[in-house]
Amino acid sequence: MSGPVDLAIIGAGPAGLAAAIEAAALGLAPLVLDEQDAPGGQIYRGVEAVAAGRAEDLALLGRDYAEGLELVRRFREAGISYLPRSAVFDLRGGGLGVLRDGRAEWLRAGEVLIAAGAMERPVPIRGWTLPGVIGAGAAQTLLKTSNVVPDGATIIAGSGPLVLLVALQLARSGTALRALLRTTPKRHYRAALRHLPAVAFEAQLWQGLGWQRELRRLGIRLVDNVTMLAAEGEGRLEAVRYARNGEAVRLEADNLLLHEGVVPNLQLSRSAGCRHQWDPMQRCWRPVVDAFGASSVAGLAVAGDCGGIGGARAAASQGRLAAIGAAARLGRIDAGERDRRAAPVRAELQRQLRIRPFLETLFRPADGMVVPVNESTIVCRCEEVSAGELRQAAALGVPGPNQAKSFTRAGMGPCQGRVCGPIVAELLAQATGRPVAEIGHYRIRPPVKPLTVGELAGIEGLDRAPPATPR
Amino acid sequence: MSATDCIVIGGGIVGAAIAYGLARRGLGVAMLDEGDEAFRASRANFALVWVQSKGLGFPDYAAWSRRSAALWPELAAELEETTGIACGYRRPGGVTPALSEAELEAQAAKLAQIRHEAGNQPFEYEVLERPALDRLLPGLGPKVVGGTFCPLDGDTNSLRSLRALHAGLARHGGGYHPNRKVRSIEALPGGGYRVLSEAGERFAADKVVLAAGLGNKALGALVGLEVPVRPVQGQVIVTERAQPLLELPTINVRQTDEGGFMLGASEAEVGLDTATEPGILSAIARRNIQTFPFLARLHIVRAWAGLRVMTPDGFPIYQQADAFPGVFVVTGHSGVTTAAAHALVLAGWIADGALPEELRAFSSERFRVPAPA
Amino acid sequence: MYRRRREPVETVTVLLDGQPVRAAVGDCVATVLLLADAADYRLTAVGGVARAPYCMIGNCFDCLVEIDGVPNRQGCLVPVAEGMRLRRQRGRPRIEP
Description:
The complex is a heterotrimer of chains A (471), B (373) and C (97).
Chain A: E1 5-10, H1 14-25, E2 30-33, H2 47-53, H3 55-61, H4 63-77, E3 81-83, E4 86-92, E5 95-100, E6 103-114, E7 118-120, E8 133-135, H5 136-146, E9 148-150, E10 154-159, H6 161-172, E11 177-182, H7 186-193, H8 196-199, H9 203-217, E12 222-223, E13 227-232, E14 239-244, E15 247-252, E16 255-260, E17 262-264, H10 267-271, E18 276-279, E19 284-287, E20 300-302, H11 312-329, H12 335-353, H13 356-362, H14 367-370, E21 378-380, E22 385-386, H15 387-396, H16 401-408, H17 420-432, H18 436-439, H19 453-457
Parallel strand pairs in A: 1-2, 1-6, 2-3, 6-20, 8-16, 10-11, 10-16, 11-12
Antiparallel strand pairs in A: 4-5, 5-6, 7-17, 13-14, 14-15, 18-19, 21-22
Helix pairs in contact in A: 1-4, 1-11, 2-3, 5-6, 6-9, 7-13, 11-12, 15-17
Chain B: E1 2-9, H1 13-24, E2 29-32, E3 48-49, H2 59-83, E4 94-98, H3 101-117, E5 126-129, H4 130-136, E6 146-150, E7 154-155, H5 158-171, E8 175-177, E9 182-187, E10 193-197, E11 202-210, H6 216-222, E12 230-239, E13 253-255, E14 261-263, H7 278-291, E15 300-310, E16 317-320, E17 327-331, H8 339-352
Parallel strand pairs in B: 1-2, 1-11, 2-8, 11-17
Antiparallel strand pairs in B: 3-7, 4-6, 5-6, 9-10, 10-11, 12-14, 12-15, 13-14, 16-17
Helix pairs in contact in B: 1-5, 1-8, 2-5, 2-8
Chain C: E1 2-4, E2 11-16, E3 19-24, H1 29-37, E4 42-43, E5 50-51, E6 64-67, E7 70-74, E8 85-87
Parallel strand pairs in C: 2-8
Antiparallel strand pairs in C: 2-3, 4-5, 6-7, 6-8
């Protein structure tokens, strides 16, 4: 694998797959790289294996998941160059460093598309680091890839469409679901009503209501307006506490599945020097891009949830637009053809994003689910730094997350701030009374994947490495 | 307008050490700092308190480094008592390994020369062959032929040290003002100075210390001081944590008190670029695997690039502004090693109002090419 | 705690702390440890506290496990293979010089 590639696509989820298919149709020779060993990203993870070996589970996992099968099949049929089990550890305009099978290599590429998807927003409640506490999406991954479900008394807590879906998938699978605790504040329902007429006919809305009905039919207890959520136990989860309408509740549990929506995976776009902006509606940072996903760094584009949350179908449309844009920038098509091809995709994208304002208003995470309330709650899981220590650093007057990082070690662990970054930003905003948009973020530098010193020492193809983009 | 005894411009290891040193002497101090994205060599260094190779051709600096290393235990103890924060300073001695006989000879010759220039001042070091080195450092690779050892060398946790200095400053009543990049320094008619931030905030003091690293060049120009500093980039790799293995730091590889291994070093003149570069990181990895082959198996947790504050001869600049009495500049790229001397000695001289004759050699006058006769 | 919904069709045998364990083709290493004992996954390098995977997609680094002699590998990103040697991590790994 050494010749230059015209379009390298990082990520084999809906955005990456759709981009690859579109790029191939436009006469490009794309290369898709992905960390997993099969295409589908996270949302369609394991879809080929499930379809081949566990067809009865497709019904359990739902129609949206099964849609991914079609996309993956089209990708396979197009015969596109594909490198699974490949991690991109360095990215800049013009090329990327790839780690695969214990070997590191620099690949040159005319254009790179980051389609790295989303991650679950971290939920730093007290006790969230206890074994037994896991993301709802993470539990769903276990179901998809290994047909594994939580055993023992299980509670799902949080807000967002995934909470209902996972609850339903697990309930259908026979998991002992004690309760579904919804943390959506009451006032969000009122605020979301404003967007309701526009989305009254959205299938997704009715689908969600259908899920809720089925859950009730299955006898799952739904609790609304939950606050002060906490996990407790010695060395493992033993019980979940919460407050509701002034009443304190304690439920014994073996598993707690947390979810407060998803946020973009920004490690690659940050480390490559792309400009980002704070999105107040989504309550997260996202890369600044043009109408075709092109970022502020020449040769780097972004598509799908890693550019801002829009869901799987919107991700596929954005992937297609990014491929069209890349083909134009590479000179394969002219601006006229680019716009002609893009128009129907853009119209579809608009339709797919119509429900977002409603969802983002309704499921906006409550402050108490985004910033720890207790001083002892861990903020940086890797370095085991508590909210109290970070507030102490804020009191010392640190100018921002990078100085807070150097004073507390938060963000210095192996996850490189992927998980604690959003929490630290919100915590510093709260502590200093400044808006999150002003707070800034950790400085992220390659390598962004844990290759070994030996693998880096033996890297091949570096003579092809372009100079770094000055920042 | 807030008025105090001394304004220190710069909140890195140099500024914080000076500010702490002034505050512990009872002066009112305001330490001004830039924002979160500033270059901050203090966050990007290798954390060595290193003496063995310092000051070739400049014996006053060699002596100053040794003096600072000797004072480090006192600084660390004082900071821990005042703030509860342990700097993590240790002095097990340090080693510069040699990967060939030629390297070892060159190192030995350099140290011999430094000792010669030290005159009757003690400078202890040893040139060790491989068997002796194996007793100090496990896991040395086959190419290592020996190394030079100096008992005064050591390291610290530079981030905790900086934090301790900040906390110590606060304990002594000093003020820390981040997000205040300095726009101007003006002499006040009745004496003293007014310092203006970019946002228009005013600070006044009898004395001003420029300790802003690369920013000292522009700041110096405001007060008639030539401060010829330029950035020299160095990249560093940090690995995952392991059980303690290396008890001594070496010039390019040290194990931190947290257990990760830090790997350096590189030098590149790339302006103000703090991006890491895979070719340079790979070269650092390759070189250090030769010294310690076991490093090859460790995962890299992160890498960074720092900008050394480099003067034309690599030695610090300590100077007071002739035309602006009470204004001082303190700058150099060994801020960690010299932190103790800065806090416990230099700050005292600044508090007393003048730098002594013995520091004259550190003035930037030394860079002036004399006019032809 | 976790359980399989059905017996897997295709399996491999791996060693977990020296003991043979049957795993399904398609399992990632993290799944094997979770099925064995989700409350005894690993002890951290900093404080020696008990942790288990949180995100399962390679971001949280709480799924760290020693695989075939190499410590600190992300269990959620590594598919199982026949004969793989897995060891739970207790604090910082020891490096053999």
